[in-house]
Design goal:
Bound molecules: S-adenosylmethionine
CATH architecture of the domain at 9-152 and 171-198 and 254-261: 3-Layer(aba) Sandwich
Shape: globular
Number of helices: 9
Largest sheet: 7 strands, mixed
Strand order of the largest sheet: 3-2-1-4-5-7-6
Distance between the termini: 28 Å
Strand content: 15-25%
């Protein structure tokens, strides 16, 4: 299978590393999505090894450690800046690992539970990711995933399309493809939920500042070169105004929650 790479991992890691100090203050939506994922975890499991993939500032890694005090809990992230930030702020019992989710540094069948909230949308090779999950999960082990679908930020994507032809918003993979890749790797689905959340903003700059603060702004190879000029931003604001509703400017997020297990 040929994988068309849209962005460099170094650029993704640098963007999230820079965002580490501002992430938590701007990440209410990410908190809510991760909390819903956390609530999907079955209550009758007692994992010995837990990995939070794309752990960011470590909020959910700590929650996992508190929920499973007997377990060795590890936060794994590509961005060194996120790992430094998390290591300085959380329980000493947590372990932090710098690695790529498509190439996990764990032995075969060594992990009981993977948790990953809002990191999978940064993967451009789902078969590699799910093959790694299948390889490293203990038989009967679980993975809980939250990720984003193609409708996410469509207002911003379409507004930019009307301004220039460049990619300004990440392209998100449809849920059917995510589910098919997981099944292909040999994982069985236990739960699948899809929903849309619409955020509201008074002004477009509130949304763009938020995306920058969480490190999720544009790092695609096909992005417009150089800085975005004033004229273009003015056109973008005018273009986005077409979506304005009485309660503000909407920004749609299409969210998937997925619980899978490796057959025992
Ligand atoms: C939107 S943040 C989510 C952080 C945290 N899970 C949360 O819910 O607050 C996405 C995280 O995924 C990490 N990430 C992106 N690509 C990755 C990869 N290939 N391997 C591991 N982590 C990655 C980023 O560095 C970032 O910390």
């Amino acid at each position: 299978m040929t994988v068309k790479v849209q962005r460099s991992k170094l650029a993704v890691a640098e963007s999230f590393s820079r965002a580490a100090p501002s992430y938590d203050s701007a990440a209410q939506l990410q908190r809510d999505i991760g909390t819903e994922l956390f609530n999907l975890l079955p209550s009758n499991v007692a994992p010995q090894t837990v990995v939070d993939i794309g752990s960011g500032t470590g909020f959910f890694s700590e929650k996992l450690q508190l929920a499973y005090p007997q377990a060795l809990v590890c936060g794994l992230d590509l961005a060194q800046g996120m790992l430094h930030y998390a290591r300085a702020r959380h329980e000493k019992s947590l372990t932090w690992v710098g690695a790529d989710m498509e190439c996990l540094p764990f032995a075969d069948a060594s992990i009981n539970l993977f948790f990953s909230s809002l990191a999978l949308q940064w993967s451009e090779d789902l078969p590699a990711f799910f093959a790694e999950i299948h390889r490293t999960l203990y038989p009967g082990g679980l993975i809980a995933l939250a990720t984003l679908g193609p409708n996410t930020l469509f207002e911003l994507r379409d507004s930019w399309q009307r301004v220039d032809g460049f990619t300004h918003v990440n392209q998100f993979i449809h849920g059917d493809k995510v589910r098919a890749a997981a099944a292909q790797a040999g994982l069985r689905e236990r739960c699948w939920i899809s929903a849309e959340k619409i955020m509201r903003y008074d002004a477009l700059r509130e949304l763009t500042h938020e995306l920058k603060a969480i490190g999720a702004h544009n790092v695609n190879r096909a992005r417009a070169p150089g800085l975005t000029g004033r004229e273009k931003l003015k056109k973008l604001r005018a273009s986005y105004e077409l979506y304005r509703q009485p309660d503000g400017l909407p920004a749609t997020y299409e969210i998937y929650w997925l619980l899978l297990h490796k057959p025992g």
